[in-house]
TrEMBL record:
It comes from Streptomyces olivaceus. Belongs to the MoeA family. Transmembrane segments: none annotated. This is Molybdopterin molybdenumtransferase. Its cofactor is Mg(2+).
Length: 477
């Protein structure tokens, strides 16, 4: 049986993601700002930006063949704002190339997706005159004789009231014909003969929600490009929808590289725990992606080449292997696959050796550094704008917050520093080295610190973390 939501979907024939992107840009949604957060940490008093994040994998000793401080590498690397803009442009081009059709999603699977068709009311709201309060429905002036049978929500049309008559009524119940008003329970009393008297004046129509008060059938409630929040789902259900026509989630495959990674137990004998395998899939889902596969490739170049070239995901995400060491295979397999490097290194710390490549017109690869916080930096620099754009989500408006404490800067590169929000200020956190997760685990956001650093009280742009911005229930669906 065709669901009611399909009616609006039929009006969206010919829609593509690019159209939704344009509408989102014309009508940006409200910026999501996360305030308050877990824990409290002392501010940062030392400069971890001097530590290079060239380590090939998650905290392990790295190869030093290409020092990031060299002038030629700084010249090749992309400035941080430009890298984010490049990722957005790449996603727009991919959306045009793919022309992915909208999908029909049941309400319980549509949270966090973007409307690909306007939400038009399929019924009047409310669809009949209803009582806004518990009490009595009354007809004419009082006092009133009260019927033995009351009026309950969910029942068919009750019998007509005559002047001088009342009946008990529940909130949401259908109001009988010829009802004058609803008298609230606390505004009436009964005498010894069982007759109902008002304790204050009765106004015609009081506490009755008339049919169509909120909307009429066919009224547009929400436009294309609206993000489906819990409130949107409630409105859609009230308006008669079982499904919504939405932009599909971008599909992502995650490839975890490195022979030194353990999936369980304590580190031993030069082996370390894989932090990115457990962290990346839920983070990518928080960014609006459908994570289809998480594959452990190790340091096998042929396996990596097969995994990349056989994937049909919109985005392939790799971890580690983006530098120039003997088992750093990402660059060689991209050349072998004929990929186009759009971003090859970013002027940001941590995360300098991240990259973005176009595999096909409608497919990209984001190469994340292997160190955990550097990988987070890569997610927010390259993967977030790309996935947000593919999903036709509105871009959050940047907002500055003063830093409570000074933050040391890199001479040439932007720094992303975990912070917690305390009152009207952002407090920089300890443990913000490229291999560390302790700071970001307690953070509300990342502060964007320009080259040269920031003084105490100076404003810095914040990048909200998905769970701080949208709430756990929203961002992890």
């Amino acid at each position: 049986m065709t669901s009611r939501g399909a009616r609006a979907g039929a009006e969206a024939d010919g829609f593509d993601v690019e159209e939704a992107l344009a509408l989102v840009q014309e009508n940006p949604g409200p910026a999501h700002r996360g305030h308050g957060g877990p824990g409290s940490h002392a501010p940062q008093h030392h400069d971890t930006s001097r530590h290079e994040d060239t380590h090939r994998h998650q905290g392990s000793p790295g190869h030093d063949a290409a020092r990031h401080g060299r002038a030629e590498e700084r010249h090749r690397a992309t400035p941080w704002p430009e890298a984010r803009a490049t990722a957005e442009r790449a996603a727009r081009a991919a959306a045009r190339a793919a022309r992915r059709a909208p999908v029909s999603a049941p309400l319980d699977h549509a949270l966090g997706l973007t409307l690909a068709a306007p939400l038009a009311a399929l019924t009047d709201l409310p669809s009949f005159d209803t009582s806004a309060m518990d009490g009595w429905v009354v007809a004419g002036p009082g006092p009133w004789t009260v019927r033995d049978e009351g009026v309950l929500a969910g029942h068919a049309q009750p019998a007509r009231l005559t002047d001088g008559e009342a009946a008990g009524v529940a909130t949401g119940a259908r109001v009988p014909p010829d009802t004058t008003a609803v008298l609230r329970t606390e505004h009436g009393r009964t005498d010894d003969r069982g007759r109902l008297h008002p304790t204050r004046g009765v106004v015609h129509g009081q506490d009755i929600r008339p049919r169509g008060q909120e909307c009429r059938t066919g009224d547009q409630l929400l436009a294309v490009g609206t993000l489906t929040t819990p409130a949107v789902l409630g409105l859609a259900a009230a308006a008669g929808y079982d499904t919504l026509t939405v932009v599909p989630r971008p599909r992502v495959d995650v490839l975890v590289l490195g022979d030194e990674l353990l999936t369980a137990g304590l580190p031993h004998d030069g082996l370390i725990r894989d932090a990115l395998g457990p962290m990346l899939p839920p983070w990518l889902r928080a960014l609006g992606a459908e994570v289809r596969a998480v594959r452990r490739i190790g340091d096998d170049a042929e396996a990596l080449h097969r995994a990349v070239t056989t994937s049909d995901a919109d985005l392939v995400v790799t971890t580690g292997g983006t530098a120039a060491g003997p088992v750093d295979h990402v660059h060689p397999i991209l050349r072998r696959a004929g990929a186009e490097l759009l971003v090859d290194g970013v002027q940001v710390r941590p995360g300098h050796p991240m990259l973005l490549a176009r595999l096909k017109d409608d497919q990209h690869l984001v190469g994340l550094p292997g160190n955990p916080l550097a990988a987070v930096s890569g997610l927010l620099t390259l993967a977030e704008p790309l996935l947000r754009t593919l999903a036709a989500r509105p871009a959050p408006e940047p907002y500055p917050v003063p830093l409570r404490d000074a933050v040391h800067g890199h001479p040439y590169d932007t720094r992303l520093v975990p912070v917690v929000l305390r009152g009207d200020a952002a407090v920089p956190l300890h443990y913000n080295g490229p291999a560390m997760l302790r700071g970001i685990a307690a953070a509300d956001a990342l502060a964007v610190v320009p080259p040269g650093g920031a003084r105490s009280g100076e404003e810095a742009e914040l990048l909200d973390l998905p769970w701080a911005a949208g709430g756990i229930g929203v961002c992890f669906t």
